[in-house]
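Working notes for the structural subgroup meeting. M.R. asked for a predicted model of this chain before we commit to crystallization trials. I am recording the input and output together here so anyone reviewing the notebook later can reproduce the run.

Input as submitted:
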Amino acid sequence: MTSTAGPGYAPAPKPKSQRSGRRCRRRSNTLDTDPQSPSTLGYFQTLPLEIFQMVLNYLPVKDISMLSMVSKTISNRLINYISTPSGNRRLLLQDFHNQEPPGKREGSCILEHYKSLGLLFKRCTLLLPTKDRLKYMHKVLSEISCFKLIGCPRPLHCLGLQCYGMFLQILTAGWDELECHRVFNFLCELSNLPRKVQIVVSSKPGSARKLELRIRLYCRSVLLNHWIHRSDSAFWLTRILKPWPMVNQARLLYIIFGPVSSLDGHVVWQKMIEGPTDETSLKGLADAIKLLYDTEAREWTADDVISLVDELSVVPREWLMENNARLLILSGNNICFTFMASKAVNGRAVELARLVVFLALVCEKDLYCMDWAVKMMQKVCKVFSTPGERNHFLQCVENAFAHLIMDTLQAVLSGDRDEEDSSFLNLFHLVNAQANFHKEILYLTMRSSSV
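Returned structure, recorded in token form:
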């Protein structure tokens, strides 16, 4: 048919095109509202739900987590699958009491499984608010007793808390601080951690040994051990410590990082009081102190950390000075100098002089370079505001050496020797420490005079 329109007019649009457009718009609306649409389920649309879940039973957890990113509909199906009895049996492995340590094949296998499971949960719940993600996590994991602070009857031989910590680390990696605050508060509410910490820090050290052990394992395995970046570790350690006064922070730090018995895993409170200890017993505490001192731990000032170290040195009673000196050496140059400088500024020259002597003794015993102790003393001397104060301090150092050698010699002459003859051995190390300390001072003096 010929159009009746004049040559100056555009041809009228065909009605067929209008109907086609309406059909396209209707189809587009259907895609947005139909959760079972073929375009979001793909070939899985043809499978009954039961067959789909049977297929999932044969997929590795990592592949299931990749599948969850295909579409929201698939993700919802996976969320439902996780909550089913078959999904629980398939995904929530509970063989936590295998005697192989985590470094061995079986232990690392279950840790890797929960690492993959954390990634699956992360991807499945990606579109949910943090509060709902945590609620869903709790709903699925709440029946696993080994994930609870007081749940497993054999906590020292259980990988449950380590798996839980690995799961949480993967789930929350990349979350901002506000979300991580919510996670910590959520975990505290579930485990009643603040109440249990209140019990142990208010009780006599060692009177709640089992609870101390539970808190130590929970804090280390769930909250602290699995982070790659130091800033993350500092954040979670800060969350644990900051709610408490300084004296309780020191107690809690000792519970989490202090020495433990090789027999039953309980905290050994007398270790720093009864005699000199080794680096292994102090390394955990030193690493925690360095972590808090780092600039990444924004909520801690240098004064805060030094006060914490000072408070720690009297937990549960005053430590042997040698153990104090060894902790400072392990904590690094910056912390050691800041600690000593604070004593110099506050007029505690006698106490500072004794510390210098024990730093030299530890250098001698543990085979550190003695010139480090001399240079540290030289650096501290610059803190004193007048030559008189500096000379007084140096005299105190010499007096401290003399008094300590006389006290040790008296212990040797008294005849009260133990099986290892530690008094005589200590005198041997002390005399050598004094000789090597002064030798380094002479070297330093001669080098300065020859310039």
